Amino acid sequence: MFLSQVLHPDLEIADNAFPPPRTAPSNLKLLDKEVRAVFLRLFAQLFQGYRSCLQLIRIHSEPVIHFHKTAFLGQRGLIENDFLTKVLDGMAFAGFVSERGPPYRACDLFDELVALDFESIKEEEASSTKLQKHIRELSEQLYRNENPNPHMAFQKVPRPSEGSHLRVHQVPFPLLNDEKVEKMFQEGVAKHSITPASTRPERKCVVPAGPPVVSIMGKCGSVFNSARRLEVVKSCISFIFDNKTLETEKTLPAALRALKGKAARQCLTEELSVHVQQNRAILDHQQFDYIVRMMNCALQVSCLI
């Protein structure tokens, strides 16, 4: 949604009978920075509160930084999220922790975004105007970081006029002395090797910890998702025992994904026991195969946990 607001801002007001006046589109340079700002904001919101799950071990000559992945996923309410779990298991995130884990280092724009209050982010997402304003500010900051001196003066060499090389009064270019050129070259190399290269000093400071880890999903959304998963599992089991093959094939993939949750696995056992008590446990080979696949998926997830 955020990318569509940046790349296609007219889509938001396309259905309005009386659309407001259009804002001037961003140029290509700022548009590139706005796309980067959207992803920067996304990852900052995704990793918000990660510093509270860092453990700094100082028993070695160099401190070792450990990230408590289970605590982070549990407090964010994303313990069953495959995408974030794979992101945290990747080598890129391990490098991210080792690079940004120290509590005292040079901070940047990403650290400021991670330290933002969760309520202020939700308030900006509720208002498209505030969100676009924040993205525009981030893009301008990214542009300034890449172009610290936008008004740097460049010396312009005028182009020679036509026929200037045919003029008689032009003084011929003098011959160069090889020894003097070599001497000046060696002096310049020696001068540059003695003087250190001027680097931009990094201002180190204490990295802000930011707000505590909060669930990225609201309570209402979590309850809704859990109830929907349980309903999918119940419907799939009912289709299996009613021998509705077409409906079973449609709902089985969603039911297998839902079985990654503890509540869905408990629902599976309860539904199977209900059907056994109803003397409906006689199944053909196809129905039995469906039940075995669901039980196998539930057992595999339980063993991994």
Automatic annotation (TrEMBL):
Pfam families on file: SBF2
Matching InterPro entries: dDENN_dom, DENN_Domain_GEFs, SBF1/SBF2, Tripartite_DENN
Limits of the UDENN domain: 1-107
Protein name: SET-binding factor 2
Domain of life: Eukaryota
Encoding gene (name): SBF2_2
Species this protein is from: Ameca splendens
Family annotation (PANTHER family): C-MYC PROMOTER-BINDING PROTEIN (PTHR12296:SF16), DENN DOMAIN-CONTAINING PROTEIN 4 (PTHR12296)
PROSITE patterns tied to this protein: DENN
